[in-house]
Amino acid sequence: MAKPILTNLALWVIAMLIACDISLPSRAKISFRNDVNQFISLDMLDVLVSKNGHERHFTTDDFGLENVTGYFATGTSGEITAFVKIRDGDITVAEGSITNQLIEDYSLNIIIVLSAVRPDYGCFGCGRYAGFPIDPAYIDSTVFDGEVAKFDSMYIMLAGNWITNPVDY
Description:
This protein is mainly β. Helices cover 11% and strands 47% of the residues. The strands form three sheets. The chain has a five-stranded mixed beta sheet with strand order 4-1-7-11-8, with no helix packed on it. A four-stranded antiparallel beta sheet has the order 3-2-5-6, with no helix packed on it. The termini are far apart.
């Protein structure tokens, strides 16, 4: 006789979840990767994240070990936009933004990369990216395998994974 009670309880719980439109939370974090440009540092970074009309400003103090922020809640619908600016005093060294749709049960990583090549090369779980020029006075050049590589771009890249059932890369 216990089966009908459990079945009825399970049906009631499912009905309540549907009626209340309970969704699984989503989150995001911001990473800054600069392994190559000696003229640009984390303390020059200014990031504003806008999600569904709410804004949050990130500065150097928000970045911890390995230049990554902690996770912050994003909501599960609408859009999230990251506006990134690198400044040296009053000089804007580079700036740009990227927008992404928010979805349920997703962990998004907004990665700011200074590089000479596409940032998604060899990256699993990476999605879209946008590139923005760096002020010529702040371009760093180095030699790789006898060729000069100019680190002339700031990329904002989106990477992510499901929270509940993550994909193993």
